[in-house]
Amino acid sequence: MNASKRLETIVSFVKGKVLADIGCDHAYVVIQSLLENRVQKAYACDVSEGPLERARVNIESFGCSDKVQCLLMNGLDALPFDVDVIVIAGMGGLLIKEILIRGIHNVHPGTRLILSPHKDAKALREYLSQHGFVIQQEKIVKDGHFYPVLNVLFDGVSKQDLTLHERSLGTHVIKDSDYLDYLHHEKDKWKKILDRLPDPQKKDALEKIKDIEKNLNDF
Question: 127, CA 20 to 30 Å: which among 104, 153, 163, 194?
């Protein structure tokens, strides 16, 4: 089954007994996690019947039907109690945040979440850090675009005081070639923004560039 580098990274973070993939799409994460014995059982979940039917076909073709239940549900609203690993990927950080807020009462302490927003990662990190989630590790994946993959533990009580750099560019990030390319990409982006700003508005952009350069020097 062909998969993107981003999805392979998500699977590499999965570890537990029972997985729920929220917005499962083609069910690659569910299937591969089972084939690699990362979990014993899984739920493929989606809000629409169309993607769920595609998931069923793939799950059956890989011989995983006896270990997977497909659930038509909205976010975490009907999350089974036995789930201890949750994947939410392929959507924006604000939508992931909304899903967590609405369904957090169904998530028990000790649950691991692998979250991969394709935008608004800063807003998601800010929410997580103040609402009982601990970002334990991140991987920035270069896969056409740059995608953060967050490995998170929910305990319901912790608060993480993240720096501006950690909120914007990641916390406990794996320092590899993809992350190095990401820092250079962000530096170039802010330099272009800086060139378009009037002098009185350049302070914030200059500080962001200086922060990125410091991390590049420490790499």
Answer: 194
